[in-house]
């Protein structure tokens, strides 16, 4: 995208968020709109495809803190009329070529981004996308693309490599991305001589802008590739092998550099971002790097204590339930959780659930009645106090 796009396009409106929206809100809005307009969900819908591209372009700027600051500064600068011709001043006829205080936003030395700089630096920064110098010539980088993958719980915990098939823009196999008809090649642009930018004078000032003849690429295609019509990319189905690391979590995003949309006419490709959705497991839950498990025990086991065998990812282990264990107590099996990036492992947290039987035999009832009669006085006093308090 060019600096002209930054000036003319309201990316906040594209995503439907306020200019003061936090990063999380911008990301949430982008994901919602990207899902709704994704080409896979709207096959053959050209408007949806254009909408998806616009949303991706907006997020590529607003989703990057540094680019967002540059974008806001540029929009503020042009929106404030900083480049308008000066009005009559001091009652003298005619107008000043530029109002320099407006140009620098009235900033004092050291008080703004362009304070202390000169006008040529300012124009250079604006028309090179905020880089502080002449823009690098050549084809533009391709857009980033996103997709979503659902993993089984066990695969997410242990890590897995899976083939990922997606239909998305890719490099044209006919011209190999240069946009030229086979047997021909792009030639150097005669206007910018391959620089991708041209210089233009305005009054006493000179500034650079993308070459209009080659759109900033630096080369011109005389005979376009019949497959991609000179763009260097086509929408096609491709399969990639994606490695999901050990312990990948639900909602995590995996970045595959250079696997996104190809740049126009041989430009560098964008990135592919894979959003991970982890299917819940029938036995285990997960909290960070710890696995969770709820195990039922009987009233007698809670009172008397027992050795309890519980499952883990590596096979069953035995945990000691001490006598007098209340329902809800958590036992910890260290090192039986999810592997961390530093090579360590989380733990398995076992929650004990004391089960009260709905029906018991006469012998068991008699035994429990005898047990109740032998309840220690201190416990009875505690219960009686609660009855008096809430009864």
TrEMBL record:
CXXCXGXG motif repeats: 172-179, 189-196, 211-218, 225-232
SUPFAM superfamilies reported for this sequence: Chaperone J-domain (SSF46565), DnaJ/Hsp40 cysteine-rich domain (SSF57938), HSP40/DnaJ peptide-binding domain (SSF49493)
Keyword set, alphabetical order: Chaperone, Cytoplasm, DNA replication, Metal-binding, Repeat, Stress response, Zinc, Zinc-finger
Cofactor(s) this protein requires: Zn(2+)
GO CC terms in record: cytoplasm
Binding site for Zn(2+) 2: 189, 192, 211, 214
Leader sequence residues: none
Zinc finger (CR-type) in chain: 159-237
Record has Zinc-finger as a keyword: yes
Disordered: region residues: 83-103
Coiled coil region boundaries: none
Family matches, as Pfam families: DnaJ, DnaJ_C, DnaJ_CXXCXGXG
CDD domains: DnaJ, DnaJ_C, DnaJ_zf
Cofactor binding summary note: Binds 2 Zn(2+) ions per monomer.
CR-type domain: residues covered: 159-237
Complex and partners: Homodimer.
Protein family: Belongs to the DnaJ family.
Free-text note on domains in this protein's UniProt record: The J domain is necessary and sufficient to stimulate DnaK ATPase activity. Zinc center 1 plays an important role in the autonomous, DnaK-independent chaperone activity of DnaJ. Zinc center 2 is essential for interaction with DnaK and for DnaJ activity.
Designated name of the protein: Chaperone protein DnaJ
Organism of origin: Micromonospora sediminimaris
Name of the gene this protein is made from: dnaJ
